[in-house]
User: What shape does this take?
Amino acid sequence: MNIAIIGGGAAGMTAASRVKALRPDWNVMVLEKTNFVSHAPCGIPFYVSGIVEYFEELCTYDVAHFRSERGIDVHTNARVIEVGDGYLVAEENGRERKYEWDKLLFATGSRAKRLNVKYEELEGVLCVNDITNAEKVKKWALKAENVVIIGSGYIGVEMAEAMTRLGKKVTVVEMAERPLPEYDAEIAAVLKTEMEKFVNLRLGERVVAFEGKDKVEKVITNKAEYRCDMAIVAVGVHPNTEIARNFVELGKSGAIKTNSRMETSRENVYAAGDCAESINVVTGKSDWIPLAAPANKMGYVAGVNMAGYELHYPGSLKSQITSFYGLEIGKAGLSEHEAIREGYEVVSAFVTTKSNARYFINGLVHLKAVADRSGKLLGIQAVGKGVAMRIYAASALLYRGANVRDLFFTDFPYYPPVSRVWDPLVVAARNLFRKLGIP
Amino acid sequence: MNIAIIGGGAAGMTAASRVKALRPDWNVMVLEKTNFVSHAPCGIPFYVSGIVEYFEELCTYDVAHFRSERGIDVHTNARVIEVGDGYLVAEENGRERKYEWDKLLFATGSRAKRLNVKYEELEGVLCVNDITNAEKVKKWALKAENVVIIGSGYIGVEMAEAMTRLGKKVTVVEMAERPLPEYDAEIAAVLKTEMEKFVNLRLGERVVAFEGKDKVEKVITNKAEYRCDMAIVAVGVHPNTEIARNFVELGKSGAIKTNSRMETSRENVYAAGDCAESINVVTGKSDWIPLAAPANKMGYVAGVNMAGYELHYPGSLKSQITSFYGLEIGKAGLSEHEAIREGYEVVSAFVTTKSNARYFINGLVHLKAVADRSGKLLGIQAVGKGVAMRIYAASALLYRGANVRDLFFTDFPYYPPVSRVWDPLVVAARNLFRKLGIP
Assistant: This one.
């Protein structure tokens, strides 16, 4: 059997490894357009700030490992330009080559969204989510003095910290009225206050153009203009589906439609990772969740099924955490405004307590829990101290379809320096009890 | 209605508050034998080491708060000496008084086990779990030079750190072959190595007697003897059931039998907290789980039901975390040896990985997951870094009856400084897949 995998990122390499582990005799070929495999772009902000010293550390394993240890036929600098039934054509080192496949996986990932405004192509206007330009971002970052970051999603927030740590003057321009707009206003407000200590945070502003001669010198918004030597566009990502879109069906999101075995609309063709849709476990609907951990698991499931076994991907929760100068922020499931947009009739509780026992010095945690009228949990967000452990727990509860009683009664471990005897999660549940008429 | 509550600790005060919140017109009386209410003995080691400065901080709220803010009729220094149908007799300030009740709650807590060996009554042989002697323990600790701690459960481990932080020479004597014997050997081994850096850890030794003239001078074991100026007996607790035992049925553990409404065998009589049995959520059987967070929730449930509403306590998981000089240790559900003792046919996975992304400096986490042959999760233990968040998540999964697929597919948030794209929990699940024949 010939297995072809387009894309050597998290999903592609996990799938390749899985097929080879289950079917050592099969040929497994990975075609990767860059020079790198199993690249981990989540680490780029830490590479830019210098916490991660070497660029190579951003790749979990190198090509040689996959070839010699796992027996995977990895082709780097191999750009697939055509896919047809049972074959594909790749451009490798300037030459076109045709390969046959019995089973195919699209693991083509995502790419940074552009603003599509004037002079965005100027030198010094950079995106961050692509491993190939991590070194370029770092080089520009080191010599810049004024940096404008456009967007305050996870990457925008993390780059804001990285750049200020490097001593740069940073302006963050965000279209929405708050940073991390996926979060509800109560949570984002805490982050906003913290960000404003370090950066010039411009909310409710839309970038309309860049300006500069040889390189970017100015970012123009609908309200003002900001001088800069570098601009980072971090306004989200698109699924990479150029090759796939004429071959398999796409979903509403623009990513490739899949079922729980990561099969596409075409037999023997699979999709996994940032280019693929999957199930949002909270809503039960198809969603597009381009995140590293789900990408790895989709790749794992695709690999098992391509190898002729059966494993189903139940979907993910969009669980995430990040931090800004020690202020942790995390979310699993839906925020209140996302839940309302999805049509739920919601109740929510917002609590602020210390993160651990009152007699220990430590910070506060602000936590919001959202449920529907039946008591089903829809999402949990938190900001402050001790966020990671609450979002880990929230992920487990949401994944298992928990309701507010489960949130209340789950036996969270109490250890005074770390947690509270009435955990903020439990206090939030108790508040929801009140709103739902539970005594 | 007259509500009488015996015991003003976590369970008692929570129940009292709940009844008053739901039935402001009812009389709610709490009889507490000490001078303190809502005392939190979990904090004693931190009070002894000086991290918690004032003894009063160990009580969440004071008596005045419960009286004036919550309208609860709190009697301190009130020892109940007799209970009969509809009445009880208490000794208050040297006088016996009789009270009538329509509903009664036993929230009498637990007390430290004694070794029952020779000269245990010597001055300087102290227990730690009782709020009334916290100041005494501290006073002795400050002047002692050599301290012997008997037992290496949670209290023993925490007191070992507290005492060495105070500069004492500490010997820990443990009957079992490892510290924290509830944990499996792989986990305990990591703690053992760490403890041996700070204390003289004597495993497999049984204390047979104390010696001394006016005060303790020596601890004698079956193998050796240790000079000391102070000995701490931390070998577990007993439920306090002296008054209850002739009035309501006790369970196998010796604690008071309850149903999920915290009702005892006698109508209108409830029990909650360390004196009561409840359900072990993993085994589904009655168990005795004397821990602070479950005690509070049992008190809450008892209060709701005593107030005439209905709420069921589903039980707990014995979830716990502690730490020893920064080494975190935690557990939810059963260890492998506990699961075997319960009759399960088990599979287990023990993994050692970094706690966060490989390119960040941080410690290792050692994690063990135990499941039965059907794949049902039975317990998770961990030691090292990032333990709290994994045990929080494990608690949520175990509480919701998760299996190994759930452990694998739960969408844990990935943020490089804090977690891993393949979380140790997920890696452990993958190991279990192999043993259970899941591809």
